[in-house]
Amino acid sequence: MNTILIIVNIAVLFLLMAGLFFMQKKHVSFSKRVFTALGLGIVFGLVLHLIYGVTSKVTTGSIDWFSIVADGYVKLLQMIVMPLVFISIVGAFTKLKLTKNIGKISFLVIGILLGTTAISAAIGIGSALGFGLDGIHLTAGEAENARNALLQEKVVTVKDMTIPQQILELLPSNPFQDLTGARPTSTIAVVIFAAFIGMAYLGVKRKNPESADFFAKIIDTLYTIIMRVVTLILRLTPYGILAIITRVTATSDYEAIVKLGKFVVASYVGLILIFIVHLLLLTFAKLNPLNYVKKALPTLTFAFTSRTSAGTLPLNIKSQTKDFGVSEGIANFAASFGLSIGQNGCAGMYPAMLAIMVAPAAGIDPTSLSFILTLILVVAISSFGVAGVGGGATFAALIVLSVMNLPIAIVGLLISVEPLIDMGRTALNVSGSMTAGILTARATGELEKDVYQQTTIAEA
């Protein structure tokens, strides 16, 4: 009987996907298909949750098959991340788009990412204090105790790494290994390696123009092919979102969410306030924030459902270049650096909130100005090298709490609501990197304002 029900659920998913395909054939806009998939996934997931429950064999069996679509789509996106980053950065040099402003662009992108992360930490502190969050009264169940046992093993490694050592981890000692995404900081390492290749190209162009032109043609050809692959993968976005959000709503522990509701609400209040900061920064740059919200929503929706900044990279770059008019070089710098530096949600707000919650247990006054300023500084510096995949916030929290000599057990106590909060954090991370790209392009005169002001969203 269970097998029959699982087959029925799979058939329903295929019917919903067929409906999305029909919309595509009717040339319904990309954003409308994305939000339709989001709505259908929420409804379908809740129906599965209400009828079968979270732990039933029907639910787990169905979700196992749904994951072929959900995880398959994310894996395809991750497949193209490293080739896209490498070719795009090198291509920016061969097209002479970054030659004059490379130093200024790097400084602005990293500066904006770290600046907004510091602001995020301050907002996280304010939210935790405003809601009166206290980690002392949290209790651990079986899952939480298991999580804390794992964290105890990992924290040793975190404590053994000084901040200078963390910075050194950004440099590529083996670029071929980093092209496989083997390390959390692999993306930044690939950007640095690609930048060296680009600068070498500029040197060769002055001394041996023929060889440089031949190399540029190879890069341009590879770039064209890779962007075509990106386009093909992005067309699958509605189907991926449908499967991902169905899985999320069907398997969420709503009782735990209610139990830790105060922390969840405080987290999302903080996330919304930080997003408003992004809109204010765009407003100060004399750019319409409403246009940003409308055009960024499909990308932020995917980041929200998938919980992976790395997987969102192709959509991030597409939004910056096609929808906002950011030059390719800046878009790739901002999107790539944003994967491991200055993640506003995972590396900014979240560790700061946890530090405030556990400070009383360590005998520290969380309202002390010296403690708050130190915490903001530590959060900003420690935001280098946070992995752009689901769970990166855990490592960011471990680093911050360890540096501040605070207990780390609270990280494991929040495991039941971690996925729900991580969805919002990931969307905010991506928004932060897109905002950094747009503001940098605006400051360097490489923003096509006419494109930004258009109200239509470019098709994938």
From TrEMBL:
Keywords: Amino-acid transport, Membrane, Transmembrane, Transmembrane helix, Transport
Gene3D superfamilies for this protein: Sodium:dicarboxylate symporter
Presence of the UniProt keyword Membrane in the record: yes
Key word Ribonucleoprotein present: no
Compartments it resides in: Membrane
InterPro entries according to UniProt: Na-dicarboxylate_symporter (IPR001991), Na:dicarbo_symporter_sf (IPR036458)
Any matching Pfam family: SDF
UniProt membrane topology term: Multi-pass membrane protein
Principal location class: membrane
Transmembrane segments: 6-22, 34-52, 72-93, 105-129, 185-204, 225-245, 265-285, 369-389, 395-415
Top-rank taxon: Bacteria
Family: Belongs to the dicarboxylate/amino acid:cation symporter (DAACS) (TC 2.A.23) family.
Protein name according to UniProt: L-cystine uptake protein TcyP
Origin species: Neobacillus paridis
